[in-house]
What does this fold into?
Amino acid sequence: MQFALNALLVIFTLHGAAASAGTIYKCKNAQGTLLYQEKPCTEEAKAVTSWSSSAEAVVDADGNSSKTPLVIGQGNNGHYMVKGSVNDQDLIFMVDTGASYVTLPQWIGNSAGTQCLGTGTMNTGNGSTKVCGTIIKKLKFGNYTLSNVEAVIAPNLKEPLLGMNVLKRFRVEQDSGEMRISKKN
It folds into this structure.
């Protein structure tokens, strides 16, 4: 697959966010406030729902997969985080609809064995930066697996971003502190 780095006009914001756990519980306290937490609901907080991203379903490059959506709870910082991997290197992606492409910090690109296929400069929310274009042979997030995904490696990035070149293959909905990612019809 030929990677056209010159065609990349990637605009993304660099964020700092904490990682989330595998199972998130959605609870409602006595005042009616929804709570998202990593531990089961207490007697004072009624369980509304819970979800886990541990189910395994394989998705091809066209987004074909099981009908079970991936549900992600919004973190305390307002971001959506999802467990995943790049070439079997475990990581936690921040779901970033403002990122045109999957974007990896340099250290993750190195540890996942990606190869630089070309260099260039990108405009980001924090100004211009030098980047490297690559192809990820195997990318997993939640219960989805994709092959041969175009990505960018940014040396000063703190955490991996799951960008629109992957998200556009799925139906993505966000409401009331939940993001649902599912197969397109």
User: Anything to note?
Assistant: The domain at 5-21+54-183 is CATH 2.40.70.10 (Cathepsin D, subunit A; domain 1). The chain has two helices and 13 strands. The mean pLDDT is 76. The CA atoms of residues 18 and 175 lie 21 Å apart.
